[in-house]
Write a structure and sequence with these properties.
Length: about 180
């Protein structure tokens, strides 16, 4: 059985909706290495519909950013009950959490994620997320959606922590089995 590991950029107050507005002053080489460690262990990638639609328009045509070398060929899944079809090569639409559970059971290795706040919350609530990799920037950004919004109590155990040179924290958690 595979594992699902989510990587999120977030703030001290849990904001995670628009990292393009606050994240880049804290993205240094050390954070880049943390992100690379996450993606390098991924055998597949899971997204929600909104992130899928953004990335499916951007990454297939990108010829400059090295992330394209990972994301374009990797097996991709999008969790959506409203997406008609996936046009990005190598992408399968999953209609329900039961579909995610089936893919997780049939996958050897890690299914990675980044962003997709609604999907992360759904997976945590359903007991399908195996690891939460947080890159916490030292800033408060009130007024955005937080990755914890509408999430019931989910006990987590700290697996590792690292203070990065630009002031961000890299925290890795696993849900505590019920």
């Amino acid at each position: 059985m595979g594992r699902i590991a989510a990587n999120l950029f977030t703030t001290l107050d849990g904001s995670a909706e628009r990292p393009d507005r606050w994240h880049f002053p804290y993205f240094d080489d050390a954070m880049g290495q943390a992100v690379d460690r996450h993606t390098s262990r991924c055998d597949a990638y899971l997204m929600g519909r909104v992130l899928y639609e953004q990335w499916a328009q951007y990454w297939p045509a990108n010829e400059e950013d090295d992330f394209r070398l990972f994301i374009n060929p990797v097996r991709k899944y999008v969790l959506s009950s409203t997406l008609g079809e996936a046009t990005w090569e190598g992408t399968t639409v999953l209609r329900s959490l039961d579909d995610v559970r089936r893919v997780r059971e049939e996958t050897d290795g890690t299914i990675g994620m980044s962003g997709s706040l609604t999907t992360v919350r759904s997976l945590l609530g359903a007991g399908l997320l195996d690891e939460l990799d947080l890159l916490v920037d030292p800033v408060v950004v009130s007024g955005e959606r937080r990755w914890t919004d509408e999430l019931d109590r989910v006990p987590l155990e700290l697996v590792s922590s690292e203070a990065l040179p630009a002031g961000a924290l890299h925290l890795v958690y696993r849900p505590v089995p019920a």
